[in-house]
């Protein structure tokens, strides 16, 4: 996993450092948790988290899974 974390995604919109992307995702999840209240739906925060999560998923789907980490569903991701 460390080799993936320290890699760079080369895409049509430019290069993205995976470690920075994961940190942005984590920061925005925390921000969403702080702002998601009954009086405020957090639409902007939800959109950001979904966009970043989708970017991570797209990248991870191109990576070969580690043999011991392959879940039964065959996607490379464990069900949440």
Describe this entry's structure for a reader:
By secondary structure, the protein is mainly alpha-helical. The protein has one domain. 50% of the residues lie in helices and 10% in strands. A two-stranded antiparallel sheet has the order 1-2. The longest helix is centred in the first third of the chain and has 18 residues, at 18-35.
- Termini, distance in Å? 19 Å
Major β-sheet strand ordering: 1-2
* Strand/helix succession: HEEHH
Structural class: mainly alpha
How many strands appear in the DSSP assignment? 2
Quaternary assembly: single chain
Number of domains: 1
What share of residues are in beta strands?
5-15%
SS element count, helices = 3
Poorly predicted runs are none
Let me know the average pLDDT.
Answer: 78
Summary keywords:
80 residues; mainly alpha
How are the SSEs placed, and which strands pair?
Blueprint: H1 2-5, E1 8-11, E2 14-17, H2 18-35, H3 43-60
Antiparallel strand pairs: 1-2
Helix pairs in contact: 2-3
